[in-house]
Amino acid sequence: MSVSIPWSALLSEASYVEVTSLRLTVQPRQRVKSGTSMFESMWSSMTSSMQLAQECLQEDAKYAGNSQPLEGVELFAQTIDSILCRVKVRFIDTVIRLEHVPLDSSTGVAIEVCIKILNIQMKLD
């Protein structure tokens, strides 16, 4: 894996991440039936740039002894978004394998996706 971050021009130039020869195997855990779906669980665990900015500024304010106005949080969140929307990721020679083994079974099924090259540019809406 290689990462290139333009520290001197972080707010105007792209950051690059390149991952080579990644082998990722995912085996979903058997879930107990509940009222929430897997998607709802994943969605609730994601952090927005606004939440991230607020947490950073709260941590900073704890040591500085003052509180940050909402305007400062919004500006910090916009800065985070500005950096993230220019992140470019490239996967080279990647295999993603999804396995499913039913409960009380010694065998299961799997699907593999082989990716020669995948370029991703982050976009925030």
UniProtKB/TrEMBL annotation:
Keywords: Autophagy, Endoplasmic reticulum, Lipid transport, Membrane, Transport. It is found in: Endoplasmic reticulum membrane; Preautophagosomal structure membrane. This is Autophagy-related protein 2. It comes from Apis cerana (Indian honeybee). The keyword Coiled coil does not apply. The keyword Acyltransferase does not apply. It catalyses: a 1,2-diacyl-sn-glycero-3-phospho-L-serine(in) = a 1,2-diacyl-sn-glycero-3-phospho-L-serine(out); a 1,2-diacyl-sn-glycero-3-phosphoethanolamine(in) = a 1,2-diacyl-sn-glycero-3-phosphoethanolamine(out). It comes from the Eukaryota. GO terms for biological process: autophagosome assembly; autophagy of mitochondrion; glycophagy; lipid transport; piecemeal microautophagy of the nucleus; reticulophagy. Belongs to the ATG2 family. GO terms for cellular component: endoplasmic reticulum membrane; phagophore; phagophore assembly site membrane. GO terms for molecular function: phosphatidylinositol-3-phosphate binding; protein-membrane adaptor activity. It is a peripheral membrane protein.
